[in-house]
Write a structure and sequence with these properties.
Elements: E1 3-5, E2 11-17, E3 22-26, E4 48-53, H1 71-85, E5 90-95, H2 98-108, E6 113-119, H3 132-139, H4 148-159, H5 165-170, H6 181-189, H7 196-202, H8 210-218, E7 224-229, H9 237-244, E8 250-255, H10 262-265, H11 267-278
Parallel strand pairs: 3-4, 3-5, 5-6, 6-7, 7-8
Antiparallel strand pairs: 1-2, 2-4
Amino acid sequence: MPTFSAHDGTGLAYHVFGEGVPVICLPGGPMQDSVYLGELGGLSAHRRLIILDPRGTGRSAIPEDAASYRCDRLVDDVEALREHLGLDRLDLLAHSAGTNLAVLYAARHPERVGRLALITPSTVAVGIAATGESRLEVARLRKDEPWFGAAFAALEAIVAGNATDDSWKAIDPFFYGRWDATAQAHHAAQDGHRNEQAAAAFGAEGAFDPDATRAALAAFTAPVLLLAGEVDLNTPPSVASELAELFPNAEFVVQPGAGHFPWLDDADRFVATTAAFLG
């Protein structure tokens, strides 16, 4: 597996799938190793995927300074990867919490980004938050599912501030377009793949400056894809749409029937959309 050295000397690893023009891919979690992305439903047939294991996850080393897990400091790791690959400009794809890092990178290094694809994005970095009602509204779209009753009751308890550990477990089906054997296996395989210490530091005080980031994104003219899942409880389409509005050159797409992992719910549709955007 290829590796490179971050600016602070931490050894970082990445996975390569496919051939052709590279696109750097950042996983979510936050601070989860990249194995859950797979080959993004077959996107590797169209572009060479360079999928980073963030520091402290997967095959990447644990840094000496735990504060370096903070999202704004991780921007330097993406820049070090660009330098390692010898790219003047990079195309960047990020999923979920990883989109916060991608957005901060684009804000700090706009001249280095050719295209930016944000998949079922987190919006913490720009100060946008989903409301409890927006999540309940999306969840109601699943009312015909056999698991809906218990899952929706658990979600109501979470929104009301009465969550238990069982409540969080019960809402797992809401994150997938189909809660079938494939989805359940994908969900189970993620256990133990997140660095909890790193996740706690990711959004620590000072990590985000939403006003400054919004101002930078207003001047970011590269093409941007915002892809939301129609039934994504984590990032309802209405929230992803707000993020899209911050960019002057954004394409907003809602993938029908998709949850938080759209390449798993409908790989053909996901790949067609992202490959067409990336070119």
